[in-house]
Input
Amino acid sequence: MTGSSKLAPFTADDYRARMERAARAAADAGLAGLLVAPGPDLVWLTGYAPTADTERLTLLVLAAGQDPVLVVPTLEAPDAEKAAGAPALTLRDWTDGKDPYATTAALLESTGRFGVSDNAWAMHLLALQKALPDTAYASLTEALPMLRAVKDEAELRLLAAAGAAADATFEEIRKVPFAGRRESDLAADLAGLLRRFGHAQVDFTIVASGPNGANPHHEVGDRVIERGDMVVLDFGGLKDGYGSDTSRTVHVGEPTDEERRVHDLVREAQEAGFRAVRPGAACQDVDRAARAVIADAGYGEYFIHRTGHGIGVTTHEPPYMIEGEEQPLVPGMCFSVEPGVYLPGRFGVRIEDIVTVTEDGGRRLNDTPREMVIVD
Output
């Protein structure tokens, strides 16, 4: 995420509470603190998104019992001071020609294990290790995988608004001609509609027609969509700093009996995955519920990806709905439920909603038709 994306309207107190929560979580995990580089974690914790991808060190330092400090290059300090979370921070700037690692090392314990955001530059981490040879480091996803997973009410409203914008996009795209147009034409339509309905950032617009639908992450190309094609549509991005991600599979003209059968099967699997969402259930239970429906129908080998992923200030983040993930579901978690069947050389079907965990089950943030939609 860059400074060009519109950020969510949170206050300094909101960011202060997040930083305090993160510092406590780090201490509870046995960490000496957290080191957060530019990226989604920094945006979520401070509201600051540097306007440029720079090699100059920018790093948020968090530790329980200490005031949060943001180390920034002097030339970027004015932008950092404008961030919504800046009043909750101490800024420590460094000028070109000075050693930023010495500045940062002075803020840290000389021993201990620190959590580091996953997208920190290797050269920065290696330089800190050299300055503090008795320290150790762990990726933030490994050390605190659920840090951003549970959303508050304001975040849930923003995710719901992003989901509604994605739904409006689908309702419009189903009205346009499909047959005789290239996949890339439809992808451009999707991107334009997402922006029309408020997205500042479009992350992906998958249009996978006919045999291309058997590739879950198909890159759109110049294939001309034909009558008789099944078409997988998967699209999303960021609206007011929070993500959307939805998939629907449409058919150009009347489908065959087999195509209807496979589409209905995926719809049933998606419903089973949704019904498995409840507080205390394990993430893997959602995957198992959806996967069982497809496997029992004899298509298990053609469901080739996890059932879901978390969503928030990025469109993919923990938690993941996959076998082996025993993390319990907690009210406020948001993630996709998106089973699929992919028949090589023929067609694919995927149906995806974003779901949030409630006190007594789950709530969908997408509500467009899950039944097969016929398009022209």
In short: The chain has a mean pLDDT of 95.
